[in-house]
Amino acid sequence: MMTETQSMAAPSAVLERQKRAKFRRNMFYLALIVVGLVAPFLAYPVFLMKVLCFALFACAFNLLLGYAGLLSFGHAAFLATGGYVTGYLLASYPGLTPELGIIAGTLLATLLGVLFGVLSIRRQGIYFAMVTLAIAQLVYFMFVQAPFTGGEDGLHGVPRGELFGFISLSSNLAMYYFVFAIFIFGFALIQRTVHSPFGQVLKAIRENEPRAVSLGYNADAYKLVAFVISAGLAGLAGSTKTVVFQLASLTDAHWHMSGEVILMTLLGGVGTLLGPLMGAGIVVSLQHILAQSPLGNWVSVILGIIFVICVLSFRSGIVGELDKMYRKNFK
Amino acid sequence: MTFMKKTLAASIAVAAASSLAVSTAQADMSDGEVRIGYLADMSGTYRDLAGPGGLTAMEMAVADFGGSVNGAPIVISSADDRNSADVGANTVRGWIDQDNVDMVGGLVASSVSIAVTKVLEENNGLGIVSGSAASSITNEHCTPNHIHWVYDTYPLANGTAKAVVEQGGDTWFMLTADYAFGHALEADVTKVVEESGGEIVGGVRHPFPTNDFSSYILQAQGSGAKIIGLANAGADTVNAITTASQFGLTQSGQQLAGLLIFLNDVHALGLEATQNLLLTTGWYWDMDEQSREWSQRYFDEVGRMPTMVQAGIYSSTMHYLKAVEAAGTDDPETVRAQMADMPIEDFFARNGRIREDGRMVHDMYLAQVKTPEESTGEWDLYEILSTIPAEEAYRPLSESQCKLVQN
Questions:
Q1: Can you give the residue ranges of the Leucine-binding protein domain (chain B) (predicted)?
Q2: pLDDT, tens digit, 9 for 90 and up, residues B48-57
Q3: How many CB atoms lie within 10 A of CB B264?
């Protein structure tokens, strides 16, 4: 609304400012892409791939929590569905190329998202969270019981295979660039969604649902679409993760995983595009570093303390706080 | 901690010494060092089974070996897998890619072990699985790059069930965890019980995990079976035993047969709840003089008596180092072959040898948990009833689905 009145008052100045902001944003993304391209030469690629997979998962979750205001406590179900479906297909049909496996996993997770979504978006707040948790637990038990998942032992020996049938992914570097491309695709999709008219309506629903409804928007339909996109991208993250690590296990389906993604998103900054990436990076690095240090036994405690500090002292997360500082000092 | 410092000091001293007199054998060690990675659950459910105590056992083995092999210092790094297959597989991948780790030991949760052995196979590494129960590790998931040391579900089911039926426990009621592991264990037990002339009179499957076992225990009591077989693990077994004790199951003449239960579980549950429980174990600290002697040293270091897994970690690390010394190299394939060539006879393993499927077979023991009156100390928990010979205890190669075994 503000921008509209402003643009009526002084169209050219505002347009100019928006243009500059867009240019700065694009340059920033370009810089990030360059960092992503050189990263595997500076750090261990498998570790980076793990960060990217979880970052994509957190970004997908953030789309729902940050922009639609829906706290899902069952996102692990999508991650695991994507992972198990891709893992099962690639392990049992050796002719299948990894990208087809990933697409299949993502599609199934998306379908599951439709099912979940239709049931759960009828409720709000804590009830929504509980409904998603309950359905995710159903999915968890399905994976415990289903013969193809290997139960507690997990699904192992998934081949990385050859991308499009001719690019071998067995080298970590090739695999990294494939994962990086997938991440950019997912991130761009989220970025596009958030900045589209659809994203504006989502934010309006988040801020004041009755008002959005009174303006004639079908809030449920918008929420459902956001839920499905989020589920699909979480599935994509799970599928990719399975190809990278060549296994799918119950850890991905467990509700701890749904909690971990909340931690990543809140720590990085909910409702910011880069927050989940930052949060995933921090959580995964901490787990990685602490696991091999003498403090190894304290990973969960340390993460818990960090979470408490974050919630108490900087609620908008790291990126959120940085963003605030930037706006205060440079604008 | 003290041990870590000691090992560190020892390896520094050895490194200094070896730099003065570089032996020819050292040239055959990758980067002049033998690097061992210890991967286990250091903070979760299986902490007491292996965890930090297992690391201490490994450090004891390295210190006892002298801190170096043919002049090459031995270095241990450790990591917590948090019982997650991807964390475990990732850590090991990093160890191999970045740190040139020569052998990975510990390995507790079955999902982690299977994931890690796949990584080892792909990268031509070497692993020794000490903590896992799944017999599939050397069956359908066998690789030429790992060895399964301490025990698996086959002798646990086989040993306990057979012995119990022979002692007159011929009617069984199965309490099974309702997932793949429980089903497999139940099938194994059913087969053994029926072959030994016993009968399964009933059973119930409980969800995994379960906190409230009352209705299942009541069904077991009502079944009239002499033996209640517990085909579950970890917290489920502990909960089932606690409930059975509260319902006076053993006092009313029925007996529990634990299929996957460890010294630390019995210690935690107490003798009141576990008395007379029959179980199969790969080793017990109070078994004989050499076991007691080693366990006392371990106890002085850690403050707890070792479980069979912790003892197995010492034994397997020692055997690995001996093989490296004998082979004069830390090349995984050569060392693996050398390990299989040398019989294993130490405080832990009797009549031990490594089969082509990677299974280390050794004598197993049927034990019974003592009653509070019989026990003379905090750790005086088991009475060893009989020995199950190595060749009978494990799954015969003729039934193996392992790709390394020609059938």
A1: 33-370
A2: 899 999 999 9
A3: 21
Cβ of B91 within 8 Å of Cβ of A291? The answer is yes
As a dihedral over the C-alpha atoms of residue B59, residue B62, residue B63, residue B69, rounded to 10 degrees, the angle is -160
Residues B52 and B93 in one domain: yes
Chain A residues with CB-CB distance to B7 below 8 A: none
Cα separation, A249 vs A259, whole angstroms: 17
Residue A53 corresponds to which amino acid? C
d(CA A103, CA A80): 14
Using an 8 Å CB-CB cutoff, list chain A residues near B132.
Answer: none
- Enter the ipTM: 0.80
Q: Are residues B19 and B98 in the same domain?
A: yes
Q: How confident is the model over B330-385, as pLDDT tens digits? A: 999 999 999 999 999 999 999 999 999 999 999 999 999 999 999 999 999 999 99
Model pTM score? 0.85
Same domain, B227 and B86: no
> Hey, where are the domains in chain A?
41-255
φ, ψ of residue A158 to 5 degrees: the values are -80, 125
Give the domain extent around B84: 2-151+287-361
Residue B243 shares a structural domain with residue B383: yes
Distance from CA of A151 to the nearest CA of B (A): 6
Q: Give a yes or no: residue B406 inside a domain.
A: no
Q: Which residue of A44, A157, A252 is in closest CB contact with B94?
A: A44
Is the residue at B403 inside a domain?
no
Domain count, chain B: 2
Model pLDDT for residues A90-127, shown as the tens digit of each residue = 999 988 999 999 999 999 999 999 999 999 998 888 99
> Chain B: which residues have CB within 8 Å of chain A?
1, 4, 42-43, 47, 52, 77-87, 89-91, 93-94, 97-98, 110-111, 114-115, 118-119, 134, 136, 141, 178-181, 207-208
